[in-house]
Amino acid sequence: HKPPQSTIPKIITGVLTIRQAIDFHWDTLVLPNKIALDFRRVSIQNGTVIFNDTKLSGSVFFKNVSFGGKLAKQTVYASWFGLHGDGVKDDSRALNALFSCIEGQYCTFVFNENRDYAVSGHSHVEICRNTTVKNKNARIVLKDYSDIGSVVIIKEGADSVTINGLIINGGGKGVIVGNSGQNGLSLGLSNNDICVVDVQIDDCIRGIDTKLGGVFLYGDGGKGIQIENASCVNCIFNGFTINNCSIAISSHKSNHETG
């Protein structure tokens, strides 16, 4: 039985102040263009919200809510969006959905202070173009094996990305499976104007040496920072720390050949 549509407020234009909790009962709300939502310490739960150049302000907690569309240029807080941040439950899909909502919008994404955001399975955290990421002593932590190869990736073709203060943890020996180890941060697939400041990367361990069809394969991965190729232009790295990684920084051979 589908609940009545009255569970979703009627929104037209301008600024809407929301003072009471809303339960969508698994319905979808598609917002009109350039609406501003001002939340007064309320929860929004159980459904889907499609942003449309939407501005958010105030204090809100989204629980069991999926997101689509685009947010307007603004500062976005992880605390709004119901991320687990407990270091156990996987936050990678939710983070990637949020980064998709701010892609190209010149937004700043702020992680919660002193929280661990877990990445696991076949996923990673993918940071999109025109995005600034700030961190207050929070970590993105690989909890079990991911075959993607890196915990955090700057998306292919993403320009104008700033990462400030992020802590990335590769999980150490507990997450290595087979020949491929894990990397901390990867970039360089046609990325321009990248700034990485005060980033800490820990515990990225190289994969295990193996034999495949009689051919010996050296374990891969274990790189704190991996620069994929020479199409990475105007990238600044300053004040970062790399601890307990098999390789601190790895760059594609074409970078050495072209300078």
Layout of strands and helices, then pairs:
Layout: E1 15-18, E2 22-30, E3 36-71, E4 75-77, E5 86-90, H1 92-102, E6 107-110, E7 116-119, E8 125-127, E9 131-134, E10 139-142, E11 150-154, E12 161-164, E13 167-169, E14 183-187, E15 192-197, E16 200-202, E17 210-212, E18 215-217, E19 223-227, E20 233-238, E21 241-243, E22 247-251, H2 253-258
Parallel strand pairs: 1-3, 2-3, 4-6, 5-7, 6-9, 7-10, 8-11, 9-12, 10-13, 11-14, 12-15, 13-16, 14-19, 15-20, 16-21, 19-22
Antiparallel strand pairs: 17-18
Keywords:
mainly beta, 49% strand, 22 strands, single chain, 259 residues, 6-stranded parallel beta sheet, disordered N terminus, 2 helices
Care to give the gist of this entry?
The chain has 259 residues and is mostly beta strands.
How does this structure look, described?
The chain is 7% helix and 49% strand. It has 2 helices and 22 strands. It is elongated, with a radius of gyration of 20 Å.
What is the terminal separation in angstroms?
64 Å
Number of helices: 2
* Broad shape: elongated
Helix/strand order, N-terminal first: EEEEEHEEEEEEEEEEEEEEEEEH
Assign the structural class, choosing from mainly alpha, mainly beta, alpha/beta, alpha+beta, or little secondary structure: mainly beta
Fraction in helix:
under 10%
Task: Give start-end ranges of low-pLDDT stretches.
Answer: 1-7
Gyration radius, in Å: 20 Å
The major beta sheet can be summarized as: 6 strands, parallel
Mean pLDDT: 84
